[in-house]
Amino acid sequence: MDNNKKKPRMSIRTANLLLTACVILLCILMAAGISQPMRFSNERARREKAVIECMTKIRTAEEAYCKQTGHYARDLRVLVRRGLLADSLRFIPFGNGKRFLIETSYTSSRTGARRPVMQCSATYDDYLGDMPEEEVSSLKEQADEGGTFPGVSFGAIDSDNGNAGSWEE
Known about the structure:
alpha+beta; three-stranded antiparallel β-sheet; 49% helix
């Protein structure tokens, strides 16, 4: 047996082609890693804009109803029947049929007068539920740490905040 036989070596050209392919692959992976959070952020903004547009119309309808009746509607169907709200606005955009959560109550002013209050909300899970779970979980964690609502809301059930929206802060 001849141990002095030369083993086939890779040519410099082949090595360069392999290195170039690896560099291109790494660049693609890096770009994908950077663009995913950007795509999520853009899609979240687009969806939140649609949710806020609905909530703004709901708030206007609820305030008109409250002026008429002295209290807020617990069910958006009441606003639809009164002609104050389009039926489609009861549903959260991108929510796969989920509806806005409406809570109503009364609070007392300093003088003891009862004032109606309400809160309307849609959680991140409601309108981002079909997006990457780790991104949505991160948003919920940030909201929890910051003491804010994990989604979009207006009004407050425990105080009269003038039906301010979370997007207006």
